[in-house]
Fold this protein.
Amino acid sequence: MLYNAVVFLPLLGSVIAGLFGRLIGDRASQIVTCVLLGVSAALAVPIFINVALHHHDVTVPLMGWIHSGDLDIRWSVRFDTLTAVMTVVVTWVSFVVHVYSIGYMAHDKSIPRFMSFLSLFTFAMMALVTADNLVQLFFGWEGVGLASYLLIGFWYDRPAACAAAIKAFVVNRIGDFGFALGIFATYVLFGSVSFQTIFAAVPAKADAVMHVFGGDWHALTVICLLLFMGAMGKSAQIGLHTWLPDAMEGPTPVSALIHAATMVTAGVFMVARMSPLFEYSSTALTVVTVIGAVTAFFAATVACVQTDIKKVIAYSTCSQLGYMFCAIGVSAYPAAIFHLFTHAFFKALLFLAAGSVIHAMSDEQDIRRMGGIWRHVKATWMLMWIGCLALAGIPPFAGHYSKDAILSSAWASHTAVGQFAFVMGVAAAFLTAFYSWRMLILVFHGKPRADEHVMAHVHESPMVMILPMLVLGLGSIFAGWLGTPDFVGAGEAAFWGKALLILPNHGALVGRTGVPAWVEMAPLVVALSGVVLAYVFYSFVPSLPGKLATVARGPYLFLVNKWYFDALYDRLFVRPAFRLGRSLWLGGDGAVIDTVGPDGVAAAARDIARRVAAWQSGYLYHYAFAMLVGVAVFVSWYVFNVR
Amino acid sequence: MTLDLVPVLPELLVVAAAVAVLMWGVFVQRDTTRDGFVIAIVAMVAAIVALGAIGGDRRLAFDGLFVLDRFAVFTKIMILLAAIFTASMSVDFLEREKIGRFEYPALVLFATLGMMLMVSSNSFLSLYLGLELQSLSLYVLAAYHRDSTRAVEAGLKYFVLGALASGLLLYGISLVYGFAGTTAFGPLAQLLGSGGATAKIGVIIGLVFVMAGLAFKISAVPFHMWTPDVYEGAPTPVTAFFSSAPKVAAMALFMRVLEGPFVHLFVEWRQVVVALSIASMVVGSFAAISQSNIKRLMAYSAIGHVGFALVGLAAGGAIGVQAVLVYLSIYLVMVVGTFAVILSMRRKGAMVERLDDLAGLGKTSPMLAFVMGVLMFSMAGIPPMAGFWGKFYVFMAAVQRGLWPLAIIGVLTSVVAAFYYLRIVKIMYFDEPVDGLDRVLGRPVALVMAVATVGVLALTFIPGPLLAGAKTAAMALFPAAG
């Protein structure tokens, strides 16, 4: 009951607010969804204690779903440590975002719809993390995708929002195509989609081959790479990341919940869930590491030159997700999930704080037109600082513990890709600190660059927005410290139990305790230098960034244009697709099908009608003539045809 | 030779009523129109009761010239019902137009009598007598509105072309008699079945002329030309009568002749029927598109429906006849209901009959629009309305007898025909209302409308009894198979 409630209460809230929102009004919709989410979040705590700390894994069967031949798919709710951790993250972040939305969306005209979508998202995310088989996971996966689409395009009267929503959906389709193929391949290999059955059968199939495109390939590698393609789309890894920055068109609470804390981490969760498969494919792990490392570095570089406050944080999210995949690639799944856990708090906090800033600055999002507002919004300012400290990995804030674990695991894996990931990760850590403080300084410090009108209106957000941020702020401070012995450290093996599988020869996480001191210190040192550099650039010598941009114009443009990914995709896929569509529409449908089909037939019918009606001259002798012609024709027919 | 008058009892009732109406009209010194209608309707109801009482076992009368079997009973009941409903709708109209006279019910009775004799004919002579009795009455009815030039023109056209058709028919009969030596249906069938006709081609050409004469009565293309002009010109109640009972009678006669004496020439006459059917479906569907007068539209609609019914006849056999009877019954209900609606199209007391006059009816008179909507959907053959089942059975019969192309053409033309039926629905519900029609409905008209709507809905959902009745009626034409 407890376990079902945590999943289905958000759905109930969504249905109530969505179907009866107009009836019960804005306030009641907010209360219903927040209370139900609150109950759900409260239930997450005993579940976490029972499942994760006392190791009572639970699977609650709900009902049969699809039964066809060998295929037997059931609905059930599965809780192990991994799910329990995700449940805490999802329900709590979702709950505080729900509450925050009461304040942030106060002036919107469709509040019930917004609350309903948020709760719908939460339900889908819970369905995803509690899935017991791949198909149910796919249901949640698509459900969160749907909710994401609906929420990015929430302000559907803005063309940019609609475009961003479509882009998010389409780019995710590409990833989901791979994911779906991965599920099919899994079914082909194992004859089942149930996690329990698959995982039990993996060792026996470790060397199985699959015949694809005329070649024999290691089956598990094929499956893992296909599944990872889905994860790349959902978690915005390089190549399929282009939708995430655009998704910032959605309301800021959405960015915090979906595009920072929860949905985008679904890819990380899924790969961790499938760890028993990935562990048997070193190729797949290598690919995961490289993609993660490159994404971490790439996104961090782009974040350094963004001017929209939300896009800075969006690229930062992209970068941090790259870290998580780095950890997974070196089999440090606990470190990845730990970072997911801490990141959820500080990144959601940063987004909510950014929302609070935007709120204060009369919907201004460009950090070049901010500055010097810290006196007016002290609470937001302090919370933003906490978020940035955690993001940059400064001890004792949350990010330090998890990022440290990832980087030292990468080093300790003693593989070439591990070293590569370490180097990229350290570089990204430097950039992370740089862009975080760049943002802090430009937004809060220095001289105000906004006009007087805006500055006069700068005001602190209401308590209903501050309190949720405080909760996240506490999480950003303490999550790393509290999680250390269990998530990664002495207790990790006991804590994770059977939820994550790490083969004995993949000992990066264990080996990280023995890394040299400089490896331990490197992230912190580079982070501090990043902070210092940001102060030099934006506080002490403010003319420096402009000069650098002029001197190194090529690299600067490369970064401003986000490594030309969007331009490339536009040229390669979008425009040809439009051209093809336009030609099929105008040439194929319009010129051929319509002309020959509906329009042509209609015109012909009208023409025939006119002619036939014209026979009706009204003259008696015409009519008589027609009759006689008829008789004559029939008679001639028989005279010539019957012997 | 004994004179068995039991089989002709219903006809005798109708004759008596017709004579009574005439006598009453002559000797009572006041307006007797209403009395005449009462007498006529009572007599026709009594005739139905008599038919039910006599039952359907095959009986001959008048020296074998007249036959009563289940087929005759079934079609006579249809004819009488159609006559009753259209007659009862007429009273109000005639009184309003101040053309009510006692001859009207008398003519309706004589026409009905002619039709009853037609469907019971067992020889070309009785066939011709019945047909002419019917036709002469109808010529007069068409021109009944003596002061209207259009009505007189319609009556005259109908008369002249009808005379031509009768001439063709008689010529055909004489050819058949000349080559076969008999006019009685039974011996003729035996003769043709045994291959005894020495000059087969002569009989066939006679058959073609006979078919031409009958095709005129059912207004099959290319013998249809009179239909739009007469439908439009004749007074509306007369048009309603024209489009219901005589169609059933002529179609039934067509089937009795083709499946009776000429059943062994099936392969030959089928070719003509197929040609008539295709031409009628095409012309009926396409020509109606450009019509703006609803009575003219109904004329083309009738031509199209005859084409569909002929699909069943082309299929032939008991299954084909059954399909045609089902089709005709459903058509009868729909067409009577539709004319009830047309009869209530009045604005400020005057009849209007343009399609545009229906604009916005959905808002101004929702009930009327609903009735018309149901009827139009059924006419168009939209599933699951009754009209769909009618089409379904004729097309299925055609398919079962291997006439795939005919069924396909039928389906295609019914798509075209759906256009103008649905356009009426569109005009009623989506066009901007013009001045609403008068809200007063005559009680008989409203009653007929209700009966037709309920009938269409009943045939939509419980077609079973009709199917069973049509089946026994069809079997009666094939005594050997039964």
Notes: Strands of chain B lie at 59-61, 66-68, 346-347, 350-351. The first helix of chain B runs from residue 9 to 27. The CA atoms of residues 98 and 145 of chain B lie 10 Å apart. Chain B touches chain A through 36 residues (CB under 8 Å).
